[in-house]
Specification:
binds the ligand N#Cc1c(-c2ccc3ccn(Cc4ccc(CN5CCOCC5)cc4)c3c2)n[nH]c1N; EC 2.1.1.228; 239 residues; 8 helices; alpha/beta; two-stranded antiparallel ribbon
């Protein structure tokens, strides 16, 4: 899997060299390439933004640098196997199932906007050429797309076959199909007693049936408490 990042702050992606994703890069599972969008400007100030047509607050990212960067990084041929991701406040909420779908992609290009966003013709052009995803991390405001690109990268790469040492653990995670769409149960490890707080006795009983039942009950309780929106979904085991 090749991952490209287009941004006016490409150093954001240096962190990928030290994290788990870095290990995947070392063992050849993923290739990471960060690019400075200003490398595709031609004026002395390396300008990437301009005032919004129709007025309004802030600045909008000009289309020209994006188009020239696309030509050099992706090419000028249409190819639906190339996934181009535009993080945006107006995007579709990014989910675990979206991460799972993207984990089989061979090429993902992250377009990290700043200011008030990117000229919409960039997205329209990308849609005419590749498979485009306009996504949002959630209902809060970030200053640009870089943090979202990092989060999406981690969510996707950890699902790439061969990345996780113990793929079975993926099935038990929150939001994964194996967990019935429920939140993950609370986790404990040694010491059994810590600052007057004890590991639930059932987890030390060695009785696998009771342990499974306790974990399920805890997942249902937590999901009802924190994510009632998940309790009505078809995939959750509770209704
Ligand atoms: N993923 C994700 C994100 C982002 C995100 C992603 C990409 C960019 C690129 C620029 N920004 C800054 C920005 C902030 C606020 C606004 C809203 N304005 C729109 C125009 O009308 C006025 C109000 C726009 C742009 C971004 C933010 N924020 N939150 C997420 N979950």
């Amino acid at each position: 899997m090749r991952l490209d990042y287009l941004s006016i702050f490409p150093a954001y992606f240096d962190v990928l060299d030290i994290s788990l994703v870095g290990k995947a890069a070392i063992n050849g599972l993923v290739e990471i390439h960060a690019h400075d969008l200003r490398d595709w400007t031609h004026d002395r100030h390396r300008t990437v933004d301009d005032t919004p047509c129709g007025g309004g607050a802030g600045m909008v990212m000009k289309p020209d640098p994006w188009g020239e960067a696309f030509d050099e990084i992706i090419g000028t041929e249409s190819d639906p196997s190339v996934h181009v991701i535009f993080p945006a406040p107006s995007g579709t909420p990014f989910t675990q199932s979206a991460a799972a779908e993207l984990s089989s992609a061979q090429r993902i290009v992250f377009c990290c906007g700043r200011y008030e966003g990117i000229d919409h013709r960039v997205i329209d052009y990308a849609r005419s050429m590749w498979t485009v995803h306009e996504v949002s991390l959630g209902d809060y405001v970030l200053n640009g797309g870089e943090v979202a690109a990092l989060a999406i990268t981690e969510a996707v790469v950890r699902l790439v076959p061969g990345f996780m040492g113990n793929p079975e653990s993926l099935a038990e995670e929150s939001f994964s199909a194996g967990q019935d769409g429920l939140l993950e149960y609370p986790l404990f490890t040694r010491p059994v007693s810590w600052r007057g707080l004890d590991v639930p006795e059932v987890l030390m009983s060695g009785h696998h049936g009771r342990i499974a039942s306790w974990r399920r009950d805890e997942s249902v309780r937590l999901t009802r408490e924190r994510r009632p929106d998940l309790t009505d979904s078809d995939s959750s085991g509770i209704h």
